[in-house]
Amino acid sequence: MSFLSSYTNRLQDGRVALAAAGTASLLYLISNARLRSNYPKILKAPAKVHDQPYPADIFPNGSDLNTPYGTIRYYEFGPEDGKKLLFVHGISTPSPAWSLIAPYLIKAGYRILCFDLFGRGYSDSPQVTHDTALFVSQITLLLAHLPHWDKFDLCGLSFGGPIASHFAHYYPLRVDRLILLCPAGGTPNADLRPAVKLIRSHLLPNFILRRLLRFVPLLPTPPKGSLAWWQAEYHPGYKFSFTSSLQDGPIFNSHEVHRAVVRDFGSKLRVIWGGKDNVVPMSTAKYFGQIDLAVIPESGHHIVLTHPEATAQHMLDFLGAGNSK
């Protein structure tokens, strides 16, 4: 009986130990999950290819920077001793947007840095709110990795315009001159169309908005083979990043910051617009205040692709040669 009693006690002790171990493991998993929840879920960018519309070697020196928000794809190229020029692209056009205009600026002596915004191109998509803070932080993360980019000229295209303005507003000592190409962000929330107000209201969660945009043509459908089409097809996080940028990004209601940088930068700021832009109409320039405005009369919104030489010439008329530091 003593043996049986001893065996029973050991069995009970084992069960207690097993239960304790199980409880400890469960608590560990719960606590670890809570710890992991402090980091955003990240949808990885597509595997790199060498085909159109986005060959990964479209520019020299392509690299990937690991950050807490996922990887950032960036390119640094042009004369090493040239004046530095940082590009910020639009809401659906990653780094290849600069492929036609870059040669003119490199020839003029500029050292170029461009990158893919989160959720675009070959940059990952963190599942967080895609607001001004995220995109300004993305630039600061990139610059922290490239300390030799201490001061530079800054150029923002479309959605990249208000991102560039916000960066210049918060870090004016880093920016020498500022160029905005067909910049979004001027229209205040009060002046938005009802459909856009609904998007910005958050009455529709992101996942519902993503499904709605498949059936309701609130935005133009990208043609097959285009950069926007490629991202929608192959980037797992593109649709989330795109819709979150519509809902929370500086694409609208950035007029106060635009006006502030126009005031603070003065003659060191130029805006270049397509005279036939029907995506971000030139009439929204009224929200910016008094600006140095250069117009390409026959161009629409995508001036860097349809009129790269004229756009580059307006930029260089303002910036001067890139080798004159």
TrEMBL record:
Organism in which the protein naturally occurs: Ustilago bromivora
Keywords carried by this UniProt record: Hydrolase
Name of the protein in question: Related to 2-hydroxy-6-oxo-6-phenylhexa-2,4-dienoate hydrolase
Gene Ontology process terms (BP): acylglycerol catabolic process
KW Hydrolase (keyword) present: yes
Every AB hydrolase-1 domain range: 85-313
Gene Ontology cellular-component annotations: membrane
Positions in coiled-coil regions: none
Keyword Cell membrane: no
Entry GO MF terms: monoacylglycerol lipase activity
A Pfam family hit: Abhydrolase_6
Domain of life: Eukaryota
